[in-house]
Amino acid sequence: MRRKRKVKIIATLGPASSDQQTIQKLFDAGADVFRINMSHASTDKLTELHRIIRKVEADSGRPIGILIDLQGPKLRVGAFESGSAKLEEGADFTFDRNEAPGTTARVNLPHPEIFQAVEPGHDLILDDGKLRMRVSEVDDETITAKVIVGGRLMDRKGVALPNSVLPFSAMTDKDRVHLEHAINLGVDWIALSFVQRGEDVAEARKLTRGRTAIMTKVEKPAAISHLDQILEQSDGLMVARGDLGVEMPLEQVPGLQKQMTRACRRAGKPVVIATQMLESMITAPVPTRAEVSDVATAVFDGADAIMLSAESAAGGFPEEAVATMDRIAIEVENDPLYTTIIHAEHLEPEATGADAISAAANTVADTLQLAAIVCYTGSGSTGLRAARERPRQPVIALTPVAATGRRLALVWGLHCVLTSDAEDLDEMVDKACRIAFQEGFAMPGQRIIISAGVPLGTPGATNMLRVAFVGANERTDT
Are the CB atoms for 297 and 329 separated by under 8 Å? Predict the structure, then answer.
């Protein structure tokens, strides 16, 4: 199944989309990767969803990526005597280690790490930004803060500390269990939540030992401060605009989104734009005009993937949400300004033979108006290099490794096909031409350009380009 767009779509699975029939419909509507949020799923549920997705993949004959989103550390206040308390603006409020039910003057905060990290002048944001306080005094047992934005605070609502770097890992014991289970199943991407430093990603990388790709969610101000180190340690980034917009001024988020999109493209690593892209479609069959513009902006910026969260997981119109996102992306990519905008920033290739070859393939394909770029890739690195150039021509990534095809399903512009390695150069050309024809990318008489590594099958050894004609009698076997 050939998509008519290059940006990829990630659909989150949940109560509204957990059966095989619905997941198949979401794939048919345009979903390339499925996200499973472990904040709301058990290991048993993950196993069942993994089985269903792989069944849909087998029936569809196209690699499908699976992204597991780990919950990360959740910071919450304790309980109140009456279930909630009204906090008045300007009043003092205390967080303490006392487990007694809270009142309008105090509440338990069962996270000793916060007492170690917070300082006078730091902000506390509660209930996804509905309430805001500023710390005035702190010791080992209490934090006293002045209410800046008041309201009703209910039991066990979340607390965020945008000015503080907390002294704990981005992974909890629960996350480690979920991570190992997901790796044993063979998932393709792991998303890390609440990352603050590059060390948080390095810890996860030690645990994965190269068995899955790591997607770091950027949702804390500390992560912005350490973005270069985080990107270096990660296989990709997710711009988690929901939490990022809670902990930082909302007006800064669009600029940060563009900065991260460009940084990932320069690094040749995929970037996902997430959160509230078509939020109104949770309850309505059509989006708002502003949401359509939001999705279009991410596509114009050259994001690798755009993501649906509650829209496909718990909304009333999951299939329509995917189909709507698909139509928006197709329309944007057909816009006369799209190519100009996406290539406004010129990227110099890295000083390696493989990157130079990929850049040359893009130049040759554009100059000769070739039908497609075909790259042989075992590890996926050649596919990533090809996508980094954002070529006008479609890119077909041929790989004998199922895990590679599934991981690249998230990457901009790559149409992944699982096929055996070629035995020699003649077979390499024949196979590339045949698949380009069968998949609908090239007609007889058109030309394609092929990139590969010689000796064939050598990981990371892309060192050859070949322009070939697609013949009139391409065989149907692969």
Answer: no
